[in-house]
Specification:
Blueprint lengths: L44 E3 L7 E3 L16 H11 L1 H21 L1 H10 L1 E2 L5 E3 L5 E7 L10 E10 L6 E4 L8 E4 L11 H7 L7 E6 L10 E4 L2 E3 L5 E11 L4
Antiparallel strand pairs: 1-2, 3-5, 4-5, 5-9, 6-7, 6-8, 6-12, 9-12, 10-11
Helix pairs in contact: 1-2
């Protein structure tokens, strides 16, 4: 017996034709800012770095704003860690990392004054100290003299007096790193000696001297072996050129 099926009026299998949404409901793209100069409220970018002046203005290549220079003090901390232990290295690393920005901002005028107060000596005059160290001023620096515990960064060239072209240490040059010394601390870094620390006590930032160190305040009766065939013989009188790049007060 054939049966017929009549769909319920509420059940419908037909699909209504799809219609596009009203134009008023279509989201419009956000308005684009006008090209040209940036808005007046936008702050200029400031880049701060060790040893360089602040630069204000736009960026080249669309790079992000950054503050550089903290990483450049890593070599100082690592050098001090090797010589004076982890505690001393970390203490100076933290001091330099946290103080580098404030030093660049707060003491910019002070550093400028120190550099302005430094002047080259036209005629060298030799000074003889009671301990028989002799030195001649090549450039008089500005600022404060270092005290015990202060960090002094210097460029150093040392040779045996009378031996031409045989330097046992030389940090002058663009690709070379200067040496760091904490006043009153031992041991000395490569090429330094007690005579150099004695001379640094009366030098200022930017100062430069030619120094003659007797063997008793140099490497003494044993001399020194720096490896790779670089040696200082016993009882050798030393001749140095020393220049102070930076004097940082000890962390409180």
């Amino acid at each position: 017996m054939a049966s017929s099926f009549t769909p319920h009026p509420l059940l419908s299998f037909s699909h209504p034709p799809s219609t596009p949404p009203p134009k008023a409901l279509i989201a419009a793209p956000p308005p684009q800012p006008p090209t040209g100069s940036p808005p007046e409220h936008q702050q200029p970018i400031v880049q701060i770095g060790i040893g360089g002046s602040n630069k204000r203005g736009g960026r080249r290549g669309g790079g992000s704003a950054r503050i550089s220079g903290v990483g450049s003090t890593d070599w100082v901390a690592s050098s001090l860690t090797r010589r004076f232990g982890l505690g001393a290295g970390l203490a100076w690393a933290g001091f330099l990392a946290l103080g580098v920005i404030s030093e660049q901002v707060k003491t910019r005028l002070e550093v400028s004054n120190q550099q302005a107060n430094a002047w080259d000596v036209e005629e060298e005059e030799e000074v003889v100290l009671p301990n028989r160290i002799r030195y001649s001023e090549l450039r008089v620096g500005g600022g404060v003299v270092p005290r015990r515990g202060d960090l002094v960064v210097v460029d150093l060239k040392g040779s045996i007096k009378g031996a031409i072209g045989e330097e046992f240490v030389d940090t002058f040059g663009e690709k070379k790193k200067p040496l760091a010394l904490v006043m009153g601390s031992r041991p000395y870094t490569r090429g330094m000696c007690e005579g150099i620390e004695c001379v640094l006590k009366t030098m200022k930032r930017g100062g430069k001297r030619r120094v003659i160190v007797p063997h008793k305040l140099g490497f003494g009766e044993k001399g020194a072996d720096f490896g790779n065939g670089v040696e200082v013989p016993p009882l050798a009188t030393l001749e140095y050129i020393v220049e102070v790049e930076k004097v940082s007060l000890a962390p409180a």
